[in-house]
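Please decode residue identities from the backbone states below.
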């Protein structure tokens, strides 16, 4: 399956913004055949230049490429800080390369929250390769290994003790080590350090490839090394297990509650009114999860009744699940009491509530992953 670039761009925007129609469209698309490469490493390793060089080499062989570049979120707009990736602008006129910048939007692990869904889209769109460039990472930010078929860890000479400081994290997820800027002093020493670290591990040793991405030196060798690694099963195009999405807290006033949370470093990034639930919502990212503050918009709303009966406090716990329809079917089969059919809620996500009588005493919200 293939898409006209503008159609693909609009669908990508809808998926990143959790638009229900775009997410519904994504669920109908059959899987493709894309090879997913993850490019990660510390800031300053030249990842963007390397991605551009890899893409050019892939295009020499007539294959199509989607580049998903993860950038920090702008504090002002919430969008990707580097926007259109001007460092890759030489590829913008190539119809065989599709470039998408994504803001982390509070996500950790070097990826954005919608990265897995974006990979699914590019795969379904018929791309031969999907290259994911992570935001500059540290030792704990290793989510790319759960998504990519092949993970490239990019290092550069002159890192000093950085190899030791990050080896507990990204140094352990490499399928291939790339020493970029290998024309600079210290490349030999860096390779010896990586080899010494690998000597302490069991099993096959990842290859070490030297590159100079600015002039494409070593890029063909790098792709040859990639081709020698067989594709494992799809890892995480959809989350494998439920995870906490947010905690819903009923409050009398969003403004008053927000001021408290801002005092401890949690800033609302989004507000909206959900008419069907008769509630005003403020969302506060908290690591990989978030807090949702809920203020009744009418005296007869569920939240208003909750406040009247119990006062401000925890209203519900929300779990993100990989397949909401399948989860709903299992719940019904088990006799669980559902309070609604799946429908769009705050932020556009598809959700269903499960009565506390079925969950051990807490109102539970299930949310469709990637929605």
């Amino acid at each position: 399956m293939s898409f006209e670039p503008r159609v693909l761009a609009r669908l990508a925007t809808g998926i990143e913004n959790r638009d229900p129609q775009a997410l519904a469209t994504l669920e109908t698309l059959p899987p493709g055949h894309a090879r997913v490469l993850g490019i990660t490493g510390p800031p300053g390793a030249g990842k963007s230049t390397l991605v551009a060089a890899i893409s050019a080499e892939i295009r020499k062989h007539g294959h199509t490429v989607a580049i998903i570049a993860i950038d920090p979120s702008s504090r002002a707009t919430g969008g990707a800080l580097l926007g259109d990736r001007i460092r890759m602008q030489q590829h913008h006129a190539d119809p065989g390369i599709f470039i998408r910048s994504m803001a982390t939007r509070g996500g950790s692990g070097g990826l954005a929250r919608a990265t897995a869904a974006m990979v699914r889209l590019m795969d379904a769109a018929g791309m031969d390769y999907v290259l994911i460039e992570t935001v500059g990472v540290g030792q704990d930010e290793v989510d790319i290994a759960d998504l990519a078929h092949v993970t490239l860890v990019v290092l550069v000479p002159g890192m000093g003790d950085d190899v030791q400081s990050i080896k507990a994290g990204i140094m352990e997820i490499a399928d291939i080590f790339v020493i970029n800027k290998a024309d600079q002093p210290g490349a030999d020493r860096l390779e010896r350090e990586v080899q010494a670290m690998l000597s302490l591990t069991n099993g096959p040793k990842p290859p070490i490839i030297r590159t100079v991405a600015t002039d494409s030196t070593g890029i063909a060798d790098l792709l040859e090394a990639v081709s020698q690694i067989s594709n494992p099963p799809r890892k995480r195009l959809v989350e494998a297990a439920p995870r906490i999405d947010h905690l819903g807290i009923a409050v009398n006033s969003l403004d008053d509650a927000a001021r408290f949370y801002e005092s401890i470093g949690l800033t609302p990034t989004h507000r909206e009114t959900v008419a069907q639930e008769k509630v005003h919502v403020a969302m506060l990212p908290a690591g990989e999860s978030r807090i949702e503050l809920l203020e009744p918009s009418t005296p007869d709303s569920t939240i208003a009744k909750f406040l009247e009966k119990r006062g401000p406090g925890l209203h519900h716990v929300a779990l993100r699940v990989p397949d909401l329809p399948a989860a709903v079917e299992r719940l019904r089969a088990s006799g669980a009491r559902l309070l609604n059919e799946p429908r769009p809620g705050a932020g556009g996500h598809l959700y269903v509530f499960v009565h506390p009588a079925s969950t051990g005493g807490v109102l539970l919200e299930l949310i469709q992953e990637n929605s």
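Observation: The radius of gyration is 23 Å.
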